[in-house]
Amino acid sequence: MRNLMKKSFQLKAAFLFAFALLVSAVTFAQNKPASPRDSVSGTAAGSTITINYGSPSVKGRKIWGGLEAYGKVWRAGANEATTFTTTKDIKVEGKPLAAGTYGFFLIPAENGTWTVIFNKVAKQWGAFKYDESKDALRVNVKTKAAPMHERLVYTVDAKSFCMFWDKIVVPVSVSK
């Protein structure tokens, strides 16, 4: 009788453990971040460039001039500020940028000429404590129309890096 009660207790405990595991797995699967972290690396101008960013989705929202205001510093992604790392000194739009890791920001503009910012403070939450006096480099670039990109993504190629989101691409040239 005692063995039967012991086995019954073990069976119930195993069932409860399996049930708790299942509930935990389902709960965890549903808690995916709305803007997951992503990164891209590539070689441009002989340097390894790595961009680490939060990747938000459009989700039917008006992005430019709506969610992301024109004329305001934007973290160029979601949540933590985007970081930009170059392993060698490079030129961005013809201007020098020393090797290192930077906070990467953009200032969207309705006229299509956006400001690209490399800030010496790499780790920041959003752009809430952004300090212009800590900028290492600012350049202006012309955006282009692009096919719809639901999720924000960056690319790196031999001569540039680009940000794609919504119906805009922000191309930034890189040279030695």
UniProtKB/TrEMBL annotation:
Keywords: Signal. Residues 1-29 form the signal peptide. InterPro entries: DUF2911. It comes from the Bacteria. This is DUF2911 domain-containing protein. It comes from Mucilaginibacter gossypii.
